């Protein structure tokens, strides 16, 4: 009789490896800045979703502070290039999304402090 539980593939990321990759991803995302605001995109709350597959493919949903942002075409490339400096990552796909629209409430306390918004 076969067990209903499907076996975990050998390539599955361990929780420890996923935690390490997550830390590295956050570190790299914090190197990308909105040129009009002196705060990184992670602290600004522009990163909506980061998924890492067992094959180390990364999928990121991000937004911009405004849809007409002058670097709209470039920022996803900056994010892709930053992520791809992580040796363990196989690929990265960055999608720009505008739903929900970004607003300052998405910013971290650190970002608000940097911009004197308290």
Question: What do you see in this structure?
Answer:
Strand 1 (47-52) and strand 2 form a beta hairpin. The protein is globular. 22% of the residues are buried. The chain has 118 residues and is of the alpha+beta class. Strands 1-2-3 form a three-stranded mixed beta sheet. Helix content is 29%, strand content 15%. The protein has one domain: Fe-S cluster assembly (FSCA) (GMP Synthetase, Chain A, domain 3), CATH 3.30.300.130.
Short description:
It is built from 4 helices and 3 strands. It is of the alpha+beta class.
Instruction: Report the major sheet.
Output: 3 strands, mixed
User: What is the domain tally?
Assistant: 1
How widely separated are the two ends? 63 Å
Q: Write down the secondary-structure element order.
A: HHEEHEH
Descriptive tags:
GMP Synthetase, Chain A, domain 3; alpha+beta; 4 helices; 3-stranded mixed β-sheet
How do the helices and strands line up, and which of them pair or pack?
Layout (H helix, E strand, L loop, with lengths): L14 H15 L11 H4 L2 E6 L4 E6 L12 H9 L7 E6 L12 H6 L4
Parallel strand pairs: 2-3
Antiparallel strand pairs: 1-2
